[in-house]
Hints:
This protein is mainly beta. The protein contains three helices and 28 strands. The protein is globular, with a radius of gyration of 23 Å.
Amino acid sequence: MRKSSPIALVCLFCLCILIVPAAQARTWHVPSEVLTLPQAIDLAEPGDVIELAVGVHKITGREYQLKPGLTIRSDTGMPGGVILKECACYGGDWRDRPVFLLEQGGAPVRFEGIVFKDFVLSCGPFSYIGNPIFYVTNGTVKFTDCHFENMYKTAVWFEGGAGHFRNCSFKNGCGCAGAIYFAGRRLVMTDCQFEEFSWIQDGNQLNGSVLQLAAGETRLNRVQFLDNGPLTHLVMVGVDANLTACSSCFIGNATMWEGEVAGRAVLDCCDHDPVMWNVVGDGEIVIIDDPGKAAATIEVSTLSAVKSLFR
């Protein structure tokens, strides 16, 4: 029996590649080619680009599936020129499900230069239900030069997956957490701001935080918390979570605590008030005041013990 040589098989494989070209990513233009962003999301394939014309784009409906590798951006590349605004479909409409879903792994989904404004329909008839704008269970989402303004309850909820935010801001929100809940693998925020968050009526009491880190690794690089409050916490670090904050500012907010740590937090050259960090259970804080100094490790569970270390 005649056997095929390895060289012949390689040549055949290369010929197949030449004959069957790889699918090309497509750019969808809204509204000139496709009327709305939700329609473009439904039509787009993994790796496609959706470019939005400068202006206000109304977002109605729920559960728009984001495909791996999808990029959504301004058609001019000018940050802040494209505004996505949540609008009701009818009188009494409320957000009973998340607006955008990411449930697939693969290449990151990217949002560039987008403003998410007035996403407040999560304030529905049932106060104990609050669906986020984004709900991530798998995959990676990356936001660059994006801004979230005027939102109710959590903006981005990570049940899994990963998130990257660069030059982004969150302003005028409320909830617990008001901006981000994270229980994924890795969250990185660089040159971001959180401003004017406040608490809400949660059951029989007022509760509120900006970030709630339930699991995974979180790194904050040059992140600012400005004029927030009243709040119970800026940051909550759960038992299964690790936070590393570098050159970030937590002071100057009307909060009961800057942070609550049940897992591990490292504050590296950050502006903070040590007695405003509540260590619970087996939580641990490592404070590095200066790169040339040794770190001070706190492994205590009571406020009085924390205070005694800084007298």
